[in-house]
């Protein structure tokens, strides 16, 4: 789930599939990159500008579990290769997580916890897309599909394993593939990979719908229910190195669905009646994802389990892996049969990345597994602030 976790992530459904929905948002480039030498976050030095942590301190459910996942990642020697990040060291991130665990177990009330956090942590704010801290928060999830390890008349659309000739840099960046003469050349885009037969023999598992395959590519992982009733996880392993490109405008042009009515649900409904169009349309996105079978929960790009409403995906070339963050935004919740947007302040861990999550103005929030999580993720499209907490 690099997320894509792309994978996933491993990436957010609203932006990945549909793009912006209002004129105002279209005028903002949330993916605006940093200029050479620019920092992705700034330290808040004015105490009056520190966020209020009290509301977040009232809800610490599952936070310690997510912190432990980050600490498990940081215990791996390979994790040290990705630090320091803008002056923040590996040991500082680790110390910060352990200190926050102490605060969780301190017995303090929310106001006291907030005061202690402000006293013992430096707070860094993402510069966002506008150098004023504006970050677009989207959502992603783990879909649950039916599938089979054997190709059958029902299950015939494959997810693929990574090819042996795929070459990665030490930081995980896809460099391309090694050809017969030992040169590293770019990997082909999606359409060429599928049409050329290069992936024959690398089939990992088969799904029953071609658009479900694409959803798995966008989300970076999936739960697969096998014919014998077992439920297994497939997760992001690598990509072909191409940049993600939305297919929403192409779907709109061929289906007649207006862009302001486009959604994942609308795409699923359209492609269920027009299965033969899936291949040509998704080929507009050159990015292709390779998967691996994993045990238990879906994993993020740091190869640790992702936690519902505690894991975020950001651009790992500019933000520190596994770090403790604080979100101040609005997020949707499922209330009965309706999705309602509420103000949200909460602590999360930076444990994932995604194909469309680039630059300091983007952040993806993991919403969980299954159709209901997908519905909530599809409604997540809100501006806010993203902070990183580092022990003083």
Overview of this protein structure:
The longest helix has 15 residues, at 90-104. The protein is α+β, with helices and mostly antiparallel strands and 392 residues long. The model is unreliable at 2-12 and 18-25 (pLDDT under 50). The protein is 26% helix and 28% strand. It has helices at residues 13-18, 23-26, 54-57, 63-74, 90-104, 110-120, 190-196, 210-219, 248-255, 264-273, 278-282, 370-378; strands spanning 41-43, 121-126, 135-142, 144-148, 157-160, 166-168, 174-178, 184-185, 203-207, 221-225, 231-239, 289-294, 311-313, 324-335, 338-352, 362-369, 381-391. 46% of the residues are buried. Helix 4 packs antiparallel against helix 5 (90-104). It has twelve helices and 17 strands.
Helix-strand layout with pairing:
Layout: H1 13-18, H2 23-26, E1 41-43, H3 54-57, H4 63-74, H5 90-104, H6 110-120, E2 121-126, E3 135-142, E4 144-148, E5 157-160, E6 166-168, E7 174-178, E8 184-185, H7 190-196, E9 203-207, H8 210-219, E10 221-225, E11 231-239, H9 248-255, H10 264-273, H11 278-282, E12 289-294, E13 311-313, E14 324-335, E15 338-352, E16 362-369, H12 370-378, E17 381-391
Parallel strand pairs: 3-16, 4-10, 13-15
Antiparallel strand pairs: 1-2, 2-17, 3-17, 4-9, 5-9, 6-7, 7-8, 10-11, 11-12, 13-16, 14-15, 14-17
Helix pairs in contact: 4-5
